[in-house]
Known about the structure:
The protein has 229 residues and is of the alpha/beta class. The chain is built from 8 helices and 9 strands. The longest helix has 16 residues, at 213-228. The protein is globular, with a radius of gyration of 18 Å. The chain has a 7-stranded parallel beta sheet with strand order 3-2-1-4-5-6-9, sandwiched between helices. Strands 7-8 form a two-stranded parallel ribbon. 34% of the residues are buried.
Amino acid sequence: MGIEITKDDKVAIVANYSHIAARALVDQLIEHPSYRKIILIDEQQPTFEHDKVVNYALDTEQLSSKLKGDDLFCFYSIHQTQKHVTDVKIRDLFAFQLAKLAAINNVGQLMLLTSSNTDKGSMNFNSRIRAHLEESVNALPFWAVHLFRPTVIVNTENKSRWGEGIANRIGKGLDFLTGGMVSRYRPVEARLLAKTMLDAAQQLEEGRFRYHPSYFVEAEEEEKGLQKR
Length: 229
């Protein structure tokens, strides 16, 4: 049976609810009219209570029959699987295991969090592993795969931001000296990352897509512009 892509009455799967961006995403999914059900997965079974939410502990054998839905949002880091750096295999990564199960169960789309440092030719082992993970999930039979490569993810919502004005002025000066490097690689708010992932899941274009650090900068600037109107 082929994959059916729907725009409404969807089921979202959120893997690694402990992640700060995953928590922000769940808040947005609950309010989003396109989703009727949200499956949360974590190493310890989540206890989030809402009419839309179902909680599962991370157990790939038990999840094999339950990992069914429309959109998989995966926040598992490679660090959560590896024990010995030299022994890491893509097939053992939680992100790949869940993505493979989802693809087998005809989940239509994968939204995967990776990193701005993802690079097959990097001297850094983790950067190379992420690149191979991206390549591996791209080969799975999803209708669409969206790969998100932010820099550092932060959560400063509702927190004191008294130094933001000073930081912005310093950043503008450094931007001038570095050709915009500071802006392109500044931290990404968890809420904004979640929003970009959710927006991507609503697109009706088939394929493989990557979202680099500059994408999140542009999204933030666009959001600020709308708020000023």
